[in-house]
Amino acid sequence: MASDGMLGLIAGAVGGLQDAVIITEGQRGPDGLRRIIFVNDAFTELTGFTPDEALGGLPDITLGPDSDRAVLKTIQDARDALVPVRVELVKYRKDGTPFWAELDVVPVLDEASRCELFLGVMRDVTQRRATHRRLLDTERLTTIGTLAAGVAHEMNNPLAYMMLNIGHLQEELPRLIASAHDPERWSELQNSVHEIQNGASRIAQIVRDIKTFARADSEPSEGCELLPVLDRAVQMARSGMPACARVATRYDQIALVRGDASRLSQVFLNLVLNALQAIPPTETDRRGVEVRTYESDESVVVEVRDQGVGVPPEVMPRIFDPFFTTKDTGKGVGLGLSIALGIVRSLSGQLEIESKVGEGTTARVSLPRVLPEQVASQRPRRSDAPDGSRLRVLVVDDEPMIARSLERALKVNNDVFTCSGGKAALELLEASASYDVILCDLSMPGMSGAELFDTVARRWPGMEQRFIIMTGGACSDAAQSFLDRRAVPRLDKPLDLAALRALLDKARATRSSS
Ligand SMILES: Nc1ncnc2c1ncn2[C@@H]1O[C@H](COP(=O)(O)OP(=O)(O)OP(=O)(O)O)[C@@H](O)[C@H]1O
Ligand SMILES: [Mg+2]
Which string of b and e fits 376-389 if b means at least 16 CB within 10 Å? Predict the structure, then answer.
């Protein structure tokens, strides 16, 4: 039994601590057990046991089915050896609710090294453990994101020349068919090319999604008109679902917003898809979706409201997590909302979801509006109709397949020259500086696109304006800072032939006006 003096001293010292303190006898009683001789107020607050209920009892009043036996044995061994110990284990309150406790048990010895008492200090670490788990989850997701970005990047180059070749085939086929003997077989061929193109576009979309998810894209800040984007998102969402609910639109006149149409369509496509998918197939006649827009302060707001099943409160905290889905395998990947959130945040906007089970869900996107004077005065013309004058185009790419595919796709209206790197390009330019357009890959071994650009700008001032830079998406820091510093037209791989043609048209117009 502890001396009253020592117990009084320790009890006085720890009585006001915020951590729960429990003191037990240092020596076993006649029944072989050590009993509780003191608890502080924090112990009562944490466990619900009053001093009256605890004193004289056994310390195992706070144990329960999930209290790890191996950990209890560790405590026991430390007590027997008279050494301090720190453990974490599940403990229980008087009302039966469990919590994670961090517990220190320290033996207090007298001058003769005899154990007077055991001091136990305990704190609730449930929250801390949850935070730690979330941190681990975040780390894991960051790793997945990095991996996915790498895979997307690797897929991009083969995809780039596949799509260029398909584009070329599609342009050539009608001409061949017109002169063919067996038109039926040829048009079957055309169908299959069309299907290949569909497949490749879908892969390209997935690659773009992954890159967005991994935040590898940089965002342009040109003003974008939102209403056509919304209409297209609704149309695309509906076309993917055979029998779906009605989508009503209620648009206020709104200002332009930051961001480009293709990334913003991804946001609203995902939101409209979620809304349509939330309405059970049997309810599509009675329940619907509404898309509305309005302005509020400095923002443009888009709401996608559905009368669907709603999001249960326990699911709500997880809906933005990448790969979180409540949908059947094959129906949802669980990336829609995390992609949407990534894009909206990158545009300094906000995305919130409100929901009531059984009534429906509202997704609200607020985007900063762009004032008219901030809008770049000229936008790229989107016309692939050549005006007849041929351009001399120098293609610089270390991937020979891409260079060849570009040559094939462009040579009808242009004189195309190819080379496989910066050094080779310089040699060609030394021989003749007469190229109208230099279509150059950004990341190449040896001399990079950025280095070629800077060298050309130094040696032939003004010629750098003929560059169109092609990027594979995930850029190195140096490459990204090059793109940020220079206002050079940029195309992401896989290349969109129409966008490339539009840039060539622009070069053609510039050439004929100068
Ligand atoms: N409008 C909504 N109504 C009800 N639940 C929703 C709604 N929007 C999202 N959710 C819930 O949030 C989850 C995550 O949505 P998210 O769009 O990220 O992935 P998904 O729709 O499951 O799959 P994916 O979009 O990749 O095809 C959904 O599985 C669903 O449980
Ligand atoms: Mg979704």
Answer: eeeeeeeeeeeeee
**Measured from the CB, is residue 335 less than 6 Å from ligand 1?**
yes
Task: Tell me whether the CATH fold assigned to 138-213 matches the one assigned to 391-513.
Answer: no
pLDDT of residue 163: 87
d(CA 207, CA 151): 9
- The tokens describing 491, both together, are 């195309």
Structure tokens at 461: 């001032």
d(CA 204, CA 196): 12
Cis (ω within 30 of 0) for the bond into 281? no
* Domain 226-374 fold: Heat Shock Protein 90 (3.30.565)
Indicate which residue's Cα is closest to atom 30 of ligand 1: 326
Q: Tell whether the model's pLDDT for residue 213 goes beyond 80.
A: no
Pocket of ligand 1 contains residue 98 by CB under 6 Å: no
Whether residue 423 is predicted with pLDDT greater than 50 in this model: the reply is yes
CATH of 4-124, one of 3.40.50.2300, 3.30.1440.10, 3.40.50.80, 3.30.450.20: 3.30.450.20
Helix (H, G, I), strand (E, B) or coil at 107: strand
Tokens of 278: 């939330």
Ligand 1 and 146: CB distance under 6 A? no
Q: Which CATH number fits domain 138-213: 1.10.10, 1.20.120, 1.20.1070, 1.10.287?
A: 1.10.287
Which residue's CA is minimally distant from atom 19 of ligand 1? 334
Q: How far is the CA of 337 from the centre of ligand 1 (A)?
A: 7
Ligand 1 atom closest to the CA of 326, numbered from 1:
29
Domain boundaries, the chain: 4-124, 138-213, 226-374, 391-513
Ligand 1 lined by 275 (C-beta under 6 Å): yes
- Using the 8-state DSSP alphabet, how is residue 217 labeled? S
What is the rounded average pLDDT of the residues 230-241?
81
E strand or H helix at 419: strand 414-419
Beta-bridge partners for 305: 290, 362
How is 220-254 classified by DSSP, letter by letter? ----B-HHHHHHHHHHHHHHT-SS---EEEEEPP-
Output the pLDDT for position 11.
Answer: 85
Mean pLDDT of 120-132: 90
> Is 311 near ligand 1, meaning CB less than 6 Å away?
yes
| Token output for 324 | 């979180």
- Is residue 255 predicted with pLDDT exceeding 70? yes
